[in-house]
Design brief:
Low-confidence stretches: none
Number of helices: 14
Radius of gyration: 20 Å
Shape: globular
Amino acid sequence: MANKWFETVGEAQRRAKRRLPASVYSALLAGSEAGVSYRDNTAAFSELGFAPHVAGSAARRDLSTTVMGQAISLPIIMSPTGVQAVHPQAELAVARAAAALGTVMGLSSFASKPMEEVIKANRQTFFQMYWMGTKASMSTLMERARAAGIKGLIVTLDWSFSHHRDWGSPWIPEVLDLKAMARLAPQAVMRPGWLLDFARSGRLPDLTTPNLAERGQAAPTFFGAYRNWMQTAPPSWDDISWMRKEWGGPFMLKGVCRIDDACRAVDAGVTAVSISNHGGNNLDGTPAPIRVLPAIADAVGNQIEVVLDGGIRRGSDVVKALALGARAVMIGRAYLWGLAANGQAGVENILNILRDGIDSTLLGLGRGSIHDLQRDDVLITSGFLRVLGGPS
């Protein structure tokens, strides 16, 4: 059997592209419109440099931290991503990989596996919600999450609409009926490894959302849940405060890019904010999260936890984010490529690559712990930073 280990996130992406049907792989590259934000999320990291030391480095480096009360062995948690049709085990494989590396699983409302199964695979699971449906239905969902043992809530606001892409959007069926399977068959036949995985599992890719099932009713399809979200009026800050109080536990607000929004989040009583533009899949032209991170961390970092989500491909990217004010980072596409390439082992592979990269970067910087990182460890080029919603 060919060696399934890969050395970089980029290699995992290449293997995922070779393994997945074209439309499935294309769905992972879901940048909106012209993809300006999508490209900037990763490119921005290359504009930052380091100021290394040559002596006095610690023999061992400490990568551990906490996020929303959860102790984790490395400053990386799994960002919630919906309907993981890249592998039959989907979110269960991701949760087990995260548990094996000692970190948190983020589970999407739009996931294909129910929270009760996922939390058995990883007791450190955060559940992600959108503002959708009625307050009564959201309260019911939060109660279900509490009963399951969910450790924290992630409320995603950085998804206003999935704009069409200039390079085209893949066709995704509402359900995998005979007509849909016939249309997708030519793609699937060209990717026999992916098809064989699902054949062995005895199940077709699941496009339903069991975490959004009403009591006694069948789980809605992804697009059925999507329509429900689109038909729900957007939340106010009072609504966010209500949701935080209704949950009553650790609460992360995801999608913040502006200082004034971060300050309003503090007022709403959140535990943490995630600096994010939804992987470039929201309002195109929004700066990369790493560009706006320092100003937001300066404004609210002494009051709440600040997490960065977007563009992480290397351990050195993680270190740059931590040095600029993040407590930890979230990854999405990186682990999905690992999942597609080699299931749970592939996700563990990704986490190990990033962990080793963090460790070697700390060694080069002469830092014994991620908590020792300083802003002057990073070289910030002129014009790199963006200050949104506050004094420049």
